[in-house]
Specification:
By secondary structure, the chain is an alpha+beta fold. 23% of the residues lie in helices and 37% in strands. It contains 8 helices and 21 strands.
Length: 371
């Protein structure tokens, strides 16, 4: 059941449609992520939800309450929306202590004295900062400052937590640690989170669902597994992770499966279940029709000897091998194209040797050729 609902939301800056009539339903307690490149409209959407930007048209509901509807001249102020927000810069006041920073939202709401102190102490303990209330905010590390920003956003028990790339200023190791802590915190508090990021690992590891945006438009909304293994558009397919793209032509097609002859690779034929066909290609798969087979590198097995009788084997030539500690990175050539795949196994191979790639059907999708 929808807890936060965005309907036909539209926002322009000059002649540019930053958010182009998007519709999103978010469930209570859900960790919902908006993912995309810079300028795709994700932060603008978040700011409209929080009341920091006004849409040109559309509506936003929190439960049964309409927060904004320009056509009805309705706009609920940010402080009245019962939402906490953490900014990319944390936006802590340097002249205040940790306690004073966290207590500030309570002060704005008229909560003072022992009640405010109890709430601040409880939320500081929740984020792992118990006992640091009197420390000046600038004296904290980056990870501690991020926890203060989270505590300040949570101290008044908001219904929704809005996070605008809160991990982007941390170094790689601390970002990974804080990612785990953030997910654990969200589950303990059981709060609805809308999270904005351009980092795919953050989106895939934290989210219950992900909305992928491009130029103000929603390309796909789904679980991390959906958007990664079952992309709805070529943009989502190519934006997330890495993808092998193999051009080919339909050799046979039935109601159950499709056979594709791979172009540029000698005697390579691939067999896919019919449900792996994406988009307009699913309507009519004529023999000879041009298509593209996409597969994630982790769904490709590298073997040395030819496996006669095994389906979905493609011949390739090894170019380079790199040892990366926990895995090996193999660069191979298929026809005239070069591909990179990763394997945990070490193969005693030299440059120029012939290898075989087994493409797993569960990792493949079939697309109409783009003209």
């Amino acid at each position: 059941m929808s807890f936060l609902r965005i309907q036909n939301l539209y926002k322009t800056f000059g002649d540019v449609a930053a958010v182009n009539r998007i519709n999103i339903d978010i469930a209570e307690g859900e960790f919902f992520t908006m993912l995309g490149s810079s300028g795709c409209g994700k932060t603008t959407t978040l700011r409209m939800v929080g009341g920091l930007e006004k849409p040109d048209s559309g509506e936003i509901f929190l439960g049964d309450q309409c927060l904004v509807a320009p056509e009805k001249n309705l706009f609920i102020k940010p402080e009245k929306r019962n939402m906490g927000m953490v900014f990319q810069s944390y936006a802590l006041w340097p002249h205040m202590t940790v306690f004073e920073n966290v207590a500030y939202p309570l002060k704005l709401r008229g909560i003072k004295g022992a009640e405010a102190s109890k709430k601040v102490e409880d939320v500081l303990a929740l984020v792992g900062l118990a006992g640091l209330g009197e420390r000046p905010a600038p004296a904290l590390s980056g990870g501690q400052q991020q926890r203060v920003a989270l505590a300040r956003a949570l101290v008044f028990s908001p219904k929704v937590l809005l996070l605008d790339e809160p991990l982007s200023n941390l170094d790689a190791q601390l970002r990974e640690e804080m990612r785990r802590e953030l997910k654990s915190l969200q589950q303990r508090v059981n709060i609805t989170v809308i999270f904005v990021t351009h980092d795919q690992i953050e989106a895939l590891s934290l989210s219950d669902r992900i909305a992928i945006m491009k130029f103000g438009v929603l390309e796909q909304v789904g679980t991390p597994e959906d958007v990664y293994f079952r992309p709805a558009t070529p943009f989502v397919r190519d934006f997330l992770g890495k993808t092998f793209l193999l051009p080919g032509k339909i050799s046979t097609s039935t109601e159950q499966e499709v056979n594709v002859e791979v172009q540029g690779v000698n005697a390579a034929s691939l067999k896919l279940p019919r449900n792996k066909v994406i988009g307009s290609a699913n309507g009519s798969l004529a023999v000879g029709q041009g298509v593209t087979v996409a597969i994630r590198p982790e769904k490709v097995n590298l073997t040395v000897g030819r496996q006669d009788g095994r389906p979905n084997m493609v011949e390739a030539t090894l170019q380079t091998v790199q040892f990366l500690g926990d895995r090996y990175e193999y660069t191979v050539t298929l026809g005239t194209d070069t591909r990179v795949l990763v394997s945990p196994e070490s193969h005693d191979l030299k440059s120029g040797e012939r290898v075989y790639l087994e493409l797993k059907p569960e990792g493949m999708t079939l697309w109409p050729s783009e003209k």
